[in-house]
Structures are given as C-alpha cells and as structure tokens.
Design brief:
By secondary structure, the chain is mainly α. The chain has six helices and five strands, in the order ααββαβααββα. A hairpin with a 5-residue loop joins β1 and β2.
Amino acid sequence: MEEFNKNLIEILQEINSKLDKLLEGKQSLTENNNKRVNTLIKEDINELVHIDDQNHIHFLQEVMGDKAPEKQVNGTVIYLTLNHKYKSSDTIGSAELGEFLTKQGIPTKNLSRSLRKYKSFVIQKGTAGKSVTYTITRPGLIRGEQLLNSYKGN
C-alpha cells in the first residue's frame, strides 16, 4: 500500500508539472493575442479619420473591395474598429452602421447576409425590423487594424 501511495504521489506531481507548463503556454498565447490587437494607435490613423462636432466618425478613404458584399464586410469591420479606438465601444446599432456605409457609398441591401459569413469578425444580434446591433470580436479587431494599416500613407 505504501508503494502504491508513493507511485500515486509521483504521478500526481508529474501531472501538476505538466499542467503548470500547459498553463504557462496558454498565458503566453493570451499575451500574444493581446499584443496583436491595439498595435495601431489613434495617432497612426488620425489622417484617415475625422470626428465631427456630434462625435460622428468619418472615414476619409474609400473602403476597399471588388463587390458590394466585400465592401460591406470591410466597411463594417473598419467602422467597428474605429468605434472601438475612438469611442471605446465595441457595439453599434444598425442605423448607425447603415448611415456610415451609405456615406461611404456602400449599399446596405443584404448586409446581414454578407456579414453572416464573417461571424468570427462581427456578431450580429437581433432581427430585421427590430433592434439589430453589431459587435466587433477580437479577430475582427485584428482584421480591422490590418485593413486600416493598408490605408496608411495612401
């Protein structure tokens, strides 16, 4: 019995050691993910953005994309990323997003359908005719920063 207990203690110590290493690795992954977001500071993109007296965000470039659905997704991700950076808010309503896209010359028809394919970037809550909101995700912020970086210096 004493030998069994000794072996059991050794096994448990080995498991604890492996768990500690695993948790350290997970922590470093989380730290790396946090470093990937917020690498773009407001000063880097001020030339791309205008904030008016009513605190509305205006993107001063044409949103890239070959077709309307691509422009809808890119425009949404850009606007939500700017909203996160300038207003510290990750969620907007459909009216606000629609106004932004329209000002950018991007049609809003079938917007929900276009965004449905990109749930990893934008979470849509609600249904048409009711209160619909859009929330940017962590991968969406990373993509938004990549898009905004592509405009710098243009």
